[in-house]
Amino acid sequence: MAGIYLHIPFCKKRCIYCDFFSTMRGEQKATYIRTLCRELADRKNYLEGEHIETIYLGGGTPSQLAKEDFEAIFSHIYKVYKVIPDAEITLEANPDDLTPEYISMLHTFPFNRISIGFQTFQDSILKLLQRRHTAEQAIRAFQNCRAAGFQNINIDLMYGLPGETLASWKEDLEQALSLHPEHISAYHLIYEEGTILWQLREQHKVEEVDEDLSVSLFDTLIGYLTAAGYDHYEISNFCLPGFHSLHNSSYWTEKKYLGCGPSAHSYNGVSRQWNVASLDKYIKGISNGTSVSEVEELNLYTRYNDFIITRIRTRWGIPLSTLREAYGEKLYTYCLHMAAPHLQQGALEFASGVLKLTRSGIFISDGIISDMLWVE
């Protein structure tokens, strides 16, 4: 089984924290969709005939697409690829796009999962972040999706936001839980170099939250959601039983995936590749039949490092039998040696032949991962 990721780069407005590739050149949308469909056809052999179990439209803002765009995309996918009947098919959406009319249109396509970018319920912070919606609009969008019959809805939240307090974060979590979404993704705000947010910090117009508050926010997140019955199955992801994101989980469990569109990444088990992060270069390259991607061939040690980075983040952890069988005795011994101090300190644990983070280990996961990586 494999997945397909489609990058939809169009946005009405750029959020000040975002460093994903995006553009506000909406006049290029029709040309882009034709180009995207051509890439889907040109790369039909990349996944070597594996059946498709997940399709994910991310961005950018995929909810900027219209009915004719989705018609072209799904026509090409189902013509070229073998999609299983119960495939998970996700659309990322901005709340203000999700009108009852738009949601009704989505129901004419095989979407069965919606991921809505809430970020926060604090209107003043939404305005600072230059989000296009208010908290009320976000709640109404969720309710519209639910009323239309969507039974698998994710909401994205952010914490560590400028001006955020532990009290306001608790309010956000309580409001989120009152909606009963099947899935919640919660990410700490990162000040990415080159973004407007980065510039505002450099100009001392906003301040990052301090480390103690960051830890308290994350601890509160875990406490609230697990107490409400959500499974903390990856560092930033929580779900009700049976609703983990199949697509995102493929990234953490070495499944193959094809990424189409500018800046999209692909993985086929032996190499990774990523497309150029330029709309013009992408369209020109695909149209001319020339390469728009870079490729990294993965040797044993690179694959081991990828395995550690992705697996340790999840509830599934590192199965020791898989580690030994796939990467050999040398790396198996190395991994256990580097894990030993963290096991002694209680940050890692063995459970049924699996090496995984403990609750306390989650808070220092970056350091643990760094220690366990192979360095030439």
Describe the overall structure.
This protein is an alpha/beta fold. It folds into 2 domains: 249 residues, TIM Barrel, CATH 3.20.20; 78 residues, Arc Repressor Mutant, subunit A (Orthogonal Bundle), CATH 1.10.10.920. Helices cover 42% and strands 22% of the residues. The strands form 3 sheets. The protein has a 9-stranded mixed sheet, sandwiched between helices. A 3-stranded antiparallel sheet has the order 10-11-12, with no helix packed on it. Strand 10 and strand 11 form a beta hairpin. Helix 1 runs parallel beside helix 2 and helix 6 packs parallel to helix 8. It is globular. It starts with a strand and ends with a helix. 37% of the residues are buried. The model has no long low-confidence stretch (mean pLDDT 95).
Placed side by side, the strands forming the largest sheet appear as 7-8-6-5-4-3-2-1-9
- Overall shape: it is globular
* Helix percent band: 40-55%
- N-end to C-end Cα span: 33 Å
Low-confidence stretches: none
Please tally the β strands and state the result. 15
Number of domains: 2
- The CATH homologous superfamily of the largest domain is called Aldolase class I
* Radius of gyration over C-alpha positions, nearest whole angstrom: 21 Å
What structural class do helix, strand and pairing data support?
alpha/beta
The CATH first-level class of the largest domain comes to Alpha Beta
Count of individual helical segments: 14
Architecture of the largest domain, according to CATH?
A: Alpha-Beta Barrel
Chain-averaged pLDDT: 95
